[in-house]
Amino acid sequence: MPIDCGQHEFVEPKRAVLGPADVKKWEQSCAYQDLLGFITSMNMAVKGKKTSAPCLASPVTTNLLKMLDTISQWVDDIAPIDQPQRYGNKAFRDFYSRLKEQGEKILKEALPEEFHPAVPEVGIYLMESFGNSTRIDYGTGHELSFIMCLGCIFKIGALKQEDSTAVVTQIFSRYIALCRKLQIIYKMEPAGSQGVWSLDDYQFIPFIWGSSQLQMNPKISPEMFCLEKIANDHADEYLFLNCIKFILSVLHKFPIVQHVLFGSILTMTPATEMVYHPPGTDMPPISSKNTVPSFLNSKPLHGNLFLNDNVPSNVPHYGRIPQDLPLNESQSSLPHVSTMSQGAALTDSDASDVSSGATRSTHLSCAEGRHPAMSPLNPLTAGSFPKCNLTTESSNESTK
Do residues 99 and 74 lie in contact, with contact meaning Cβ atoms separated by under 8 Å? Predict the structure, then answer.
């Protein structure tokens, strides 16, 4: 259910990830689950759709687009100044001052009056979405802040499920264009470059949602995205290829979480339901109540996923991705895994042999009428996902 803005007590978001030890709290927080659910939901909404595909244009989405256009106009009004520095034009600070002064005002204009009590909290995420005025830089932490801003607008009920496609193809697409305008005009540096250890761009989310757009595309195969002609011809239709086109002039990388802000909407409260998305498969997410599923904490050894007695017998390869997996199948010691669309994985060998050491049952209920990753955010309609019950039976149940 959406947050009741008339009854909810909103607060100013503040940092809560202050050191490496806090990262685990973040990973187990309600905010993390809401963020994961939002990104997953938007990803599904644009699966196989072009950026120009027709979609619902609700009053709120239209107003949010006008808000971004207003911010873009400020960039036009505040010209860069002549200065000797190669990067970081100080005129950006004038732009940022205007954003700070008028950010809440333009957000109120974009949202119906019933949602205005949330604006002081949601507005912080908006104002943190366009870069840092001290360093005059921009990175994925700022991109994440805008994603959290949109997530909050969903959480309070101003944006609804039917707005999902427009949120990606129109609102987020225009936000990306605006941020690139800021980067070019004010020569903003990439925040926290990590060299070869990260993607070469100022943003990450377009790669996620953009790849979803390209699913089932009959004309563009994965190996074609690096072709300059493909990127140039299709940049306006697919976020991913738009990134590839822009990436030619952007060769920097960055860390994120340390600058995330938390309030009453996106909180650091421990999540009561943890969701794990199996990497690289069509299997449904696994939900675990009150705690992280123990197999998520297992450590892989030299290409093998360490399994324990909490892994369902017919899903034997859950776990963290090993850092040193062999580069070709002939070197891998993992049995071949085939997937069934939106179902559980099956192995070519007898799955029960893999988990023969299991000594207790694990009942993991998936997709009970909604995507588990959605947490309380924007629930999907019943029937969107098949129901499944993954069970491990053991003859030694009574001994545990």
Answer: yes
More confident of the two residues 360 and 81: 81
Q: Which amino acid is at 206?
A: P
- Directed axis angle between helix 91-110 and helix 59-77, to 10°? 160
Residues 151 and 38 sit within 8 Å (Cβ to Cβ): yes
Q: Which residue among 211, 241, 262 closes a domain?
A: 262
Please state, in angstroms and rounded to a whole number, the distance separating the CA atoms of residues 226 and 245.
9
Distance spanning both ends of the chain, measured CA to CA: 38
Q: Are both 26 and 166 inside the same structural domain?
A: yes
What is this structure's pTM?
Answer: 0.63
Tally the domains of the chain.
2
Around Cβ 115, how many Cβ atoms within 10 Å?
A: 22
In this structure, how many other beta carbons lie within 10 angstroms of the beta carbon of residue 217? 15
Quick check: 58 pLDDT over 70? yes
Residue 100 has phi, psi (to 5 degrees) of: -65, -40
Domain that holds residue 250: 14-262
In tens, the pLDDT along 154-189 reads: 999 999 999 999 999 999 999 999 998 998 899 888
Q: Which residue has the tokens 């007898």?
A: 350
Rounding to the nearest 10 degrees, give the CA dihedral for residues 254, 255, 261, 265.
100
Strands 273-276 and 286-289: antiparallel
What is the predicted pLDDT for the residue at 129?
95
